[in-house]
Amino acid sequence: MPPAPKPVPKDYVPAFFPKRQGGARAAGGPEEPRTSIVVVGHVDHGKSTLIGRLLADTGSLPEGKLEAAEKASREEGMPLEYAFLLDAFLEEQAQNITIDTTRIGFRYKGQSFEIIDAPGHREFIKNMVTGAAAAEEAILLIDAHEGLKEQTRRHGLLLSLLGVSRVIVAVNKMDLVQWKEGRFRVLEKEIREYLGGLKISPREVIPISAREGSTVMRRDDQHLPWWKGPTLLEALLAGAGKSQQSPEGPLRFSIQDVYRFDARRVIAGKLESGRIRVGDPVIFFPDRKASRIKSIESWGEETPLREVGPGQSVAVTLEEQIFVERGHVGALPEDPPVESREVRARIFWLDTEALRLQAPVTLRLGTQSVEARLVAIDRVVDAEKLEAVTDTREEVGRFEVAEVRLRCRRPLVYDAHERVSATGRFALQRGPRIGGGGIITFAEYPASLAKPVTGEHLTWTEGRVSQEARASHFGHEGAVIWLTGLSGSGKSTLAVALESLLFRRGIGTMILDGDNLRHGLCADLGFSLTDRAENIRRAGEVAKLMAESGLVVISSLISPLKKERESVRASCRSAGISFSEIFINASIAECEKRDPRGLYQKARKGEIKGFTGIDSPYEIPEQPDLILETGKEKVVESAERLLSHVLNLVRLKEEDREGAPGPGGQI
Amino acid sequence: MAHSIRSVADFDSRSGKSFKETSLLLAESVIILAIYVKTIQSLSFMSYLQHLEDQSIYIFREAFANFKNMAMPWSMGKDSNTLIWLAKKAFAGKIPFPLVHIDTTYEFPEMLAFREWAQKHYEIDLIVIVNEEARKRGIGYETHDPVTVTHELKSAALQQALAKYKWDALVTGIRRDEDSTRAKERYFSPRTADNEWEYRDQPPEFWGQFTTAVKPGEHVRVQPLLDWTELDIWEYIRREGIPIPKMYFSQQGRRYRSLGCWPITKPIESSVDTLEGIVEELKTTKTSERAGRAQDHHERNAMQKLRAKGFM
Hints:
Largest interface: A-B, 83 and 85 residues
Strand content of chain A: 25-35%
Oligomer: heterodimer
Number of domains of chain B: 1
């Protein structure tokens, strides 16, 4: 043990530094010099060896790593195994395969590179996808002796899907084919033809030997005197810094969240493409609400930002208070995205269990997350021949690529991948895990092409349809949202707003209005306390029945007495229905000032007897589930809070969704 | 450049400088000036830091939007302080979740002083956790090996806190370049109810879509700094002017590159006492960052074993 460190003075302040430059966060800015590279190819074609070689030759290994690898190789009785440099885990060394995506940086001639090592072992392909999706450039390795293998082609296919179009092909292990140019040219022709079919034109096809160190950094005139092209590092250098990420394009602002931590209402999100300037008119899809950018919020900046560019994380405030939330996409009026429930895409599937027709799946695009189902498999692509498999398919299997149509439960905002890549690609999630992804191939088509799907809403359960089955079918639970408050407090306004917000999210909903009930079901009742109690009881029973059928019922009744509200709650609870008491809180003075229907005036004049708040009591809820201060906050704020409360209440949790038999599921 | 040296000027004045030291300082100033000019020339580098910042902010916001009960372990080190800075930016000045300090009771006094200062300065909701039970059992560096102590006082303490507070997401400051086992991490990395990392079967992660669903008892490690390197952190601290402990700067010819429990954390020989100097030193070093952290080197694969059991 070293001696204990000395105490520090009481008036301690840490090391402080002034900022290097004001407004460091320049809008846009030059392209980044760090190039990320993914190395792909068939198992055992030498990926790890190549990466080890790149690191060793460029002097990028930390002290001791090379020596440790040499020692490990000696222990195995082998010459220096460059692959060992990467294999951090014991079990990997034993199996001689790389388990997961690894990232390692190196520098060469003033340029920074980051290698994303993706494994070639078939069952680990999802890691390759993880790596390749983040890469700007790919090195596709082919064993000169073995030639193109199934995974060589599959990886090429996935690269095209993941949008990695800059590819260098390295024909490795040239030493095993006696450095013959003829063999190299045959493979070069074959791979160029294959990649050409995927619209990928490799920047270079280079003969190398990673083990011998030939044409990686150093030229090898002894063995490859016929090669006049670049070394692998020269080729990488030529493409360095030419980032293909974050291009300019139409504005697509994905909202991640709305923060109300203080007086500001901050809309936080990511610029998937395009730029935002203060004063810009922005329309938010799918609701098509319009506002202007009031400010760009930037904590820690000396001068407020006026403009932000593609790829940036931003926070803005808006001129007009409109209802926006996570998943909405901001765009400029002249260049809007597509909004549709139908998606045509080319997808890849990675999960062990196949993706079946009609099976429910969550489609995640930007910050949108919608329930969807696979409604048609147009064709499955054969990685070997790049031809469509013609037989009718009921499912997309593991590692397959297919052209499909998906139908979403609510409108999805997107673009064709060719037009805006960031809003033209998505992940597919089943249960809690991401199982695949895809790019949108076609973004505008007439509604007539959207064929109705039969059998989609069939649910079969022995005997009675259970509440769980209903919830799974509708994608949400039924519930009773009980708004209580004085006349004129804003119950009806909020009920109407909530109904519309829920409905647009694909949630079945209905308002139960106090006045409307009195026209039919409760036409026989007056306004005595007994009759009012009976009115509440009937309303409660109806609400419960409707909620049992799967709807989110919004009840809008003054319901002044605590006892009666409690008895509705108890009745719902016994039926297993969520009941939420929402106190719409506005002072009597405020309500009287509003007096939307002139009722207070009449009550004051004595024309209405037993009016709540005037000559009849209102019992304030003691423990409401939510209080909305309509006297203090704006309608949009109250509506937002109410919506988020209700969504939390009725949205299915992942485990429920997994376990419950879904529509279109197994019968 | 004088402003950068100011923070540690008190150490300089305390030790009377010899002629040799003075000329060293002079040489250093020239180097610093050269770096400064070089940095101005290569402003494009700023753009990469901007990309990292934007990505980290995106990750923070995705986590907060998707998890109901998140928290951020905080060690007061350079990575942790960078995280606070990024969180302030992500949430427009207000960090809307608690920070957690796992106090091993072997903290450097300066780190505790820093903790107190930062809590006020950043308006942090701070939870301090000590594995009192293990300390009562006599677990300590005086009597036990570093792997055992680290496991008990850090990982087990975190495990206890997870059980108590039921966090569904923890923001960590780990980076891929720190250690080869960390190179294989994801931005959102699920942990089992036993706080274990199933590194063999990780869900795919692409296009900004992360694993955001957890089963009861599980949590997700959210790692906004995964793509950053040690150099990026220092460049960013320099760009933004982020306050950090003074121990990172040379005092009597030694400074700390990575900070942990005092009995097992060794300083490196270095006269560097400016941020510019740290950046330059890092560009030429070949020693790994955590070389001064004893628990990593206690036995072969120590780090992997620690991490599979929940160590950050």
